[in-house]
Amino acid sequence: MGGAGHGHAVYRERLTPLHVVPSHVKLVAVVSFVFVVVATPGTWYPAFAGYLVILCVVGAIARLTIGFVVPRLVVEIPFVIFALLLPFVAKGSQIEFLGMSVSEAGLLAGVALLMKATLSVIASIVFASTTSPREMCRGLERLRLPQIMVQILTFMLRYVDVVGGELRRMRIARESRAFTARHLGHLKVLGHSAGALFIRSYERGERVHLAMLSRGYTGTLPVMEQERVATSMWLRALAVPAAALAVLLGSWAFS
After folding, report:
1. pLDDT bracket for residue 82 (50, 70, 90)
2. C or N terminus of the chain, fewer CB within 10 Å?
3. Statement: residue 2 has pLDDT above 70
4. Is the pLDDT of residue 8 over 60?
5. What is the pLDDT of residue 41?
6. How far apart are CA 64 and CA 122, in angstroms?
7. Which of 73, 66, 72, 104 shows the shortest CA–CA distance to 88?
8. How many CB atoms are closer than 10 A to CB 95?
9. Torsion sign, CA atoms 130, 139, 145, 4
10. In sequence order, what are the residues at sequence separation of 6 or more whose Cβ sits closer than 8 angstroms to the Cβ of residue 10?
11. The pTM is what?
């Protein structure tokens, strides 16, 4: 995570007002923002537009570009597929939409799901781009997440690049032997590669565990000294969900 050679696909190391906010403070702000978005009725479209404006402002403060954010929205493809299917599988009155007969309730539910998922993913991208993986784990620890879960997440983030590197080396080795997967008959070779990768990863995990035990590991990771978080940091981070809540209340008042 913090060692050399282990970068992060989303995190951008910069000096902005968001980067200096402690990770657990940002995590509370992101979760609060998502709760406000999810609690918004699906037909309150001005409220969703307001949330998008808030995220654009926050993204600009973090010095993120549209070209950086949009490609990473690919993680919401399952939600997009489900949202596209809702108008066709939901029951209720039918309406004409783009020359097709679809369920009105399903169409509204699909649009609401798509808006909420997109806003939530953008908020997560902003959080991940301003918080290193190591700081994320420290933030979860400060929020009193069970120690075993923090350790699992810590080691997963630490060694996902190691396993990925092993997978790339195996692919290069196959290609250097003129192997190219072109038909189903090659699944046997890929299956053997997957099994070999699992065994190597398991053996590496055992070696790492033995090395940790030899260095005094007793089941818990050392906890770094926790500094007091300034009130200004909380105000800076919670201003985002507070603005979203103000948009929600404003939309409710004028609805």
Report:
1. confident
2. C
3. no
4. no
5. 93
6. 11
7. 104
8. 13
9. positive
10. 72, 125, 128, 129
11. 0.77
Q: Are strands 100-103 and 94-97 parallel, antiparallel or unpaired?
A: antiparallel
> In Å, how far are 32, 49, 62, 177, 198 from 164, measured between CA atoms?
33, 39, 29, 20, 12
Task: Report CA 35 to chain centroid distance, whole Å.
Answer: 16
Tokens representing 44 are 């309150």
pLDDT in tens, 122-148: 999 999 999 988 888 888 888 888 878
For 100, list phi and psi in degrees, rounded to 5.
Answer: -125, 150
**Who wins on pLDDT, 184 or 127?**
127
The beta-carbon contacts of 55-59 under 8 Å, at least 24 apart in sequence, are 55/119, 55/122, 55/123, 55/126, 58/18, 58/126, 58/240, 59/122, 59/126
